């Protein structure tokens, strides 16, 4: 009977707790931190348990570590690695092998790179596997910092911390070693006991110094940890910042189980003094350019064009032959109406890799035309003549387009005839490119004709539909343009331009309110539209004039709202004044 009373009591308490929790809802953002909290707290509790384990053999530890590494990486992971990942991993291996040379245990150390910028951590597996996240590497300035981090993780392996973690988890979860591969990676991402962490700091720094690195690398790495700890408190304002905040939140579990950065810095400083280590010049982080490029791409995505430009330039100073960094630089400069700079960056991409780059060839020609129509053809021809072997179609189309701008239509007619009868898969796209050159040459009827034909050959192509809408606006077919834009496929990359095309169509159709809604949406998603120096070389005079008028209308409406607000507040303020007097 007592058991039933106890059972009923538990059920009632559970129901009451559910009711209270439903009424007191708390808005908690999603984060991986709780799992790290759990692992960190569990580790702290386990260190208090009076448990001792029989030390496993090196062979058994290596086998378990290899199985865990395979389960985390997957069977095709090695084959699918991006070129940048391979470069960084090769670099980690070189530095890591130097640091591991003086480790006590002779294990087959292997070093892995996790390219996510939100992986702000490093961890080790039993048997010799060390992982470093891209998010952590991007905060490093020197190879010496990297050596200190790798030395720290090597020492967790060297001192059997990772092996004991496996044994503790096995005991806690009551699982046989044969299925230990089911352990989540967070088990190893979380820290160890304070004593273990401080010991790994000391001995890891020693490994780095014995490998020829500066001990100050460890100090500067802990200083970076301290900065990250402070950044966790900031508020996110953009989607990119929200993702960064989520990454930083994963460190809450890390900082909860690791000693404070200040304590770790003090320990290394004391170690330097006791060992008499003299200061050494730190080495540059040889792969830093990869992270500068990644930061530049993130800034470009966030429409922070000046920042993206500067980050790309910084990356290219370290390594000039980077097509990704050059393209990021070109896009950032193009968005700021620095068309000559963008053309130069595109030209460098084409010079680095002589193979065909259809989209880069077209972008190069368009940037030249936007910068200076008078010299664009000559400069493009100079590059085209340097090509070896057969020239791709994009070269001929761009050449014909630049000739069109100079008043020479013969080449465009020849290319149009060839493309129309070629039957090539790429013909609709190339016809669309030729049609846009006709648009830039102010032959809007011909542009609409070619784009209509291309769109019929490739229905649903967002770019063809968008360009056809611009051409239809010029021939005053506003309803047709709006209908096409309404029925077009959703494409986030082109949504701001679609909104501006609708805004111009509505504006020319005298539908002012509808126009202003789309205008506001367009400039919010693509701030370039506010820059007349950007609009004028890329679109018609009608588009440039319409945008200028809509900007003036936007300002007029703002002033109207402001005046109305002042009018509403003024009587109330005067009454208060009179009452007070």
Overview of the molecule:
The protein is built from 28 helices and three strands. With 581 residues, the protein is mainly alpha-helical. Among the domains are: 33-275, no CATH class; 459-581, Serine Threonine Protein Phosphatase 5, Tetratricopeptide repeat (Alpha Horseshoe), CATH 1.25.40. Helix 24 packs antiparallel against helix 25 (495-508). The N and C termini lie far apart (79 Å).
The radius of gyration is: 31 Å
For the secondary structure, the number of strands is: 3
Helix content: 55-70%
C-alpha geometry: elongated
Q: What's the quaternary structure here?
A: single chain
**Broad structural category:** mainly alpha
**What profile does the largest beta sheet have?**
3 strands, mixed
- Show unreliable segments: 10-50, 233-240
Question: Short description, anyone?
Answer:
Helices cover 70% and strands 2% of the residues.
Using brief descriptors, characterize the structure shown:
Serine Threonine Protein Phosphatase 5, Tetratricopeptide repeat, mainly alpha, 3-stranded mixed beta sheet, 28 helices, single chain, about 575 residues, 3 strands
